[in-house]
Design brief:
Blueprint (H helix, E strand, L loop, with lengths): L19 H16 L3 H17 L1 H8 L5 H14 L4 H12 L6 H16 L2 E7 L5 H13 L5 E7 L7 E5 L2 E4 L2 H15 L1
Parallel strand pairs: 1-2
Antiparallel strand pairs: 1-3, 3-4
């Protein structure tokens, strides 16, 4: 995080670290994991949980469904977490989120926790959208440019958006650098309308 700017969730929405529901849950988990000397393991497992939510239609539907009662959701989620080897801290934390009827906020809480950890460790989270997946060389070049710009310790979060047509959209905190072909074409269209 840079100068207190807000991080972004996986869907591109802004995450508030200072307060709000997700911020309170994330701060509580961070404090508990740190106190239990299990922070590194919890960080790794929360990242895994975020990927699981993003990649598993079953888990996404389970968290989003208003029709599933709390006890059924508790059993299902605990079963999934146990099967994947999550530790007691993460299982209990997710259990509290579910029992407080905050299942729909779990993905946001995971993202907020990740942003909080990055902030505490001095890591700058850089969200990069491209029309096609970045190659290893392109990612290294991007990382080198970010280091040149003064961002030494970065975590690059990549997302592919074919609608961009080409180029990149880079978000660093509240800063946005849009070199996509889509935005260039839009600017050209506005300029041509103004000239007509």
């Amino acid at each position: 995080m840079e100068n207190g700017t807000a991080p972004l969730a996986s869907d591109g929405s802004t995450i508030s670290l200072g307060g709000g529901l997700a911020g309170r849950y994330a701060a509580a988990l961070y404090a508990h994991a740190d106190e239990a000397h299990a922070l590194d393991q919890v960080v790794e497992q929360m990242d895994t949980l975020g990927r699981m939510i993003d990649e598993s239609p079953f888990l996404s539907r389970l968290l989003e469904s208003p029709l599933i009662d709390v006890s059924t959701a508790q059993k299902a989620i605990r079963s999934v977490l146990t099967e994947h080897g999550f530790n007691k801290i993460v299982q209990d934390f997710v259990g509290v989120v579910v029992s407080n009827r905050r299942m729909r906020a779990l993905r946001t809480i995971v993202g907020t926790f990740s942003a909080l950890v990055a902030e505490k460790r001095g890591v700058v989270v850089v969200h990069v959208e491209s029309a096609y997946p970045l190659s290893g060389v392109q990612e290294q070049q991007l990382r080198a440019r970010l280091i040149e710009a003064g961002y030494g310790n970065v975590n690059i979060v990549k997302r592919v958006d074919p609608a961009l047509l080409g180029g990149l959209v880079v978000k660093i905190g509240a800063r946005l650098y849009d070199t996509s072909l889509k935005s260039r074409l839009q600017r050209l269209q506005y300029a041509m309308k103004g000239a007509a």
